[in-house]
Amino acid sequence: QLQLAESGGGLVQPGGSLRLTCAASGHSRSTVATGWFRQAPGKEREFVAAISPRGDKKNYADSVKGRFAISRNNAENKVYLQMNSLKLEDTAVYYCAVAYGGSVHDAPRKGSEYDDWGQGTQVAVSS
User: What share of the chain in percent tops pLDDT 70?
Assistant: First the structure.
């Protein structure tokens, strides 16, 4: 089981950028698929991006495609979410999660496929 810690959130103006980091610690027999999700006040949690264990497959929500980029450094057990051209509607608590099942090429979009979750980091986009 892994423990996840998100960092890098904050307050940014529209059009600005932030880079979120998901740091994993603990025991896992293999590298896992990692996803980013977000939840805005009064809304359901939604998928943002995911990356396969080997980093060869990446999936993005349509709302962030072309603006956000997910990447990973397996040697450091970290996954990053680079967020550019931020919009007001990107304001949310961002969570990272890991999925232990599936193949090394999977990058799941569904939250139900993830097993462990971090505590989240707040991203606020405001002028």
Answer: 97
- List, as one string, the DSSP characters of 23-68: EEEE--SS--EEEEEEE-TTS--EEEEEE-TTS--EEE-TTTTTTE
Give the integer Cα–Cα distance in Å for 99 and 62.
Answer: 21
Q: From CA 51, how far away is CA 19, in angstroms rounded?
A: 16
> Dihedral of CA 62/120/39/103: which sign?
positive
Type and span of the H or E element at 94: strand 92-99
Residue 121 contacts by C-beta under 8 Å, 6 or more apart in sequence?
Answer: 6, 7, 8, 9, 20, 93, 94
Q: For 4-33, how does the pLDDT look when each residue is reduced to its tens digit (9 = 90+)?
A: 999 999 999 999 999 999 999 886 666 799
CA distance 4 to 117: 6
User: pLDDT grade, residue 105 (50/70/90)?
Assistant: confident
Q: Nearest to residue 22, comparing CAs of 68, 73, 92?
A: 73
Which pLDDT value is given to residue 28? 66
DSSP letter for 102, please. S
